Amino acid sequence: MITITLPDGAQKKYESGVTPMDVAMSISEGLARNVISASVNGTKVETATPITEDSKLVLYTWNDKAGKETFWHSSAHVLAQALEHLYPGVKLTIGPAIENGFYYDVDLPEGKVITDGDFKEN
Length: 122
Description:
The protein is of the alpha+beta class. It is built from three helices and nine strands. It folds into two domains: 2-61, Ubiquitin-like (UB roll) (Roll); 66-118, Threonyl-tRNA Synthetase, Chain A, domain 2 (2-Layer Sandwich), CATH 3.30.980.10. The strands form three sheets. Strands 2-1-5-3-4 form a five-stranded mixed beta sheet. Strands 6-9 form a two-stranded antiparallel sheet.
């Protein structure tokens, strides 16, 4: 068994290999639905990362700056994959999370321009 210490100082025992999502579910299903990422001993991790030793755990949701940063970082990766699929030959440059969202600078293949026509209405 390992001990997980939460930000409020509460300590809970879990089997080695427990994930941040498992811990969130043990607290409440509502929390688990909202967890985006976590920090284990000060290192940001995914919610599926196994924890194998006594640790301090912080769970991040959209209400936390770190949760937003994680969401936007992952969103930038999804955007990059979509651009590679839609525009073969695109060169990806930089796509960081920023203070209020994310973006991706790209170099499109010769002669290609992204226009409103590239977006279908639903």
